[in-house]
Specification:
Blueprint: H1 3-8, H2 14-17, E1 29-35, H3 45-60, E2 65-70, H4 72-80, E3 84-89, H5 97-113, E4 117-123, E5 126-128, E6 131-133, E7 138-141, H6 147-157, H7 167-241
Parallel strand pairs: 1-2, 1-4, 2-3
Antiparallel strand pairs: 4-7, 5-6
């Protein structure tokens, strides 16, 4: 079941139970977290993330965006283009994914609770089969239950038991795990997408090199054959002159 449906099953207001679900702060800024690569040679992988940030800037206003970049390629480019980059770091090693994501989740929640931001969005490439899907900004916070799910759950649609005495801690833990898992999903999707994008880019480079080699080999053979023909003609002409 989705988090929205779980939230709707509680009689207590989600905003009263979990601070992360409180009324959206009055701040105008949007915090954007990007997941990309530390290196190049991966086709349009990094540029797709940059384009998604640029599209969001055109829609919301460049001056309203602040960036936290995981993947120094995108962070350095955005800084050169005049975006306000709060941090730009290398992606952690596989063994440090969990600890770094938990730390990042705490950092983002602290920034959210400061009241300076009205949204926190994630931008990363998705992997669908062996195809890298262009990234689209996804809202990480705020989380709001939908009216339809609330009506369905409170009309007896749920098939599980909720103890109202532990509503707040259960909901708070569910939200925190959900938010952390969303960050981990973004990092894992980004990592897998990079491998596929790099594989496709290297495969295309290999094919282009093979085609170039074949073209150059054909040109060389033509030039060599023309030279041989010319020398034979000169030998024959010299022999006839004698």
């Amino acid at each position: 079941r989705g988090l929205n449906e779980l939230m709707a099953s509680f009689e207590e207001s989600p905003a009263d139970a979990v601070p992360e679900l409180a009324v959206v702060p009055s701040g105008e800024k949007i915090l954007v977290v990007t997941f990309a690569s530390d290196r190049g040679l991966c086709g349009p992988y990094n540029s797709n993330v940059l384009n998604a940030v640029r599209w969001l800037a055109n829609e919301k206003g460049k001056e309203n965006l602040e960036i936290k970049a995981m993947g120094i390629k995108v962070g350095s480019v955005l800084r050169r283009r005049g975006f306000k980059v709060l941090s730009s770091e290398r992606r952690p090693a596989w063994s440090h994914f969990g600890p770094r994501i938990q730390e990042l989740s705490r950092e983002l929640l602290e920034l959210w609770n400061s009241g300076e931001y009205r949204e926190i969005r994630l931008i990363y490439s998705h992997l669908r089969g062996m195809t890298v899907v262009r990234p689209e900004p996804a809202v990480w916070l705020p989380i709001e239950p939908t009216e339809g799910q609330a009506e369905e759950s409170r009309s007896g649609g749920g098939d599980y038991f909720i103890d109202e005495a532990v509503t707040a801690p259960v909901l708070a833990q569910a939200v925190q795990r959900y938010l952390t898992n969303e960050l981990l999903t973004g990092l894992l999707q980004s990592e897998a997408s990079e491998h596929v994008a790099r594989m496709v880019a290297m495969d295309n480079a290999t094919r282009n090199a093979e085609e170039l080699y074949s073209t150059l080999q054909l040109t060389y053979n033509k030039a060599r054959q023309a030279k041989i023909t010319q020398e034979i003609c000169e030998i024959v002409a010299g022999a006839n002159a004698v």
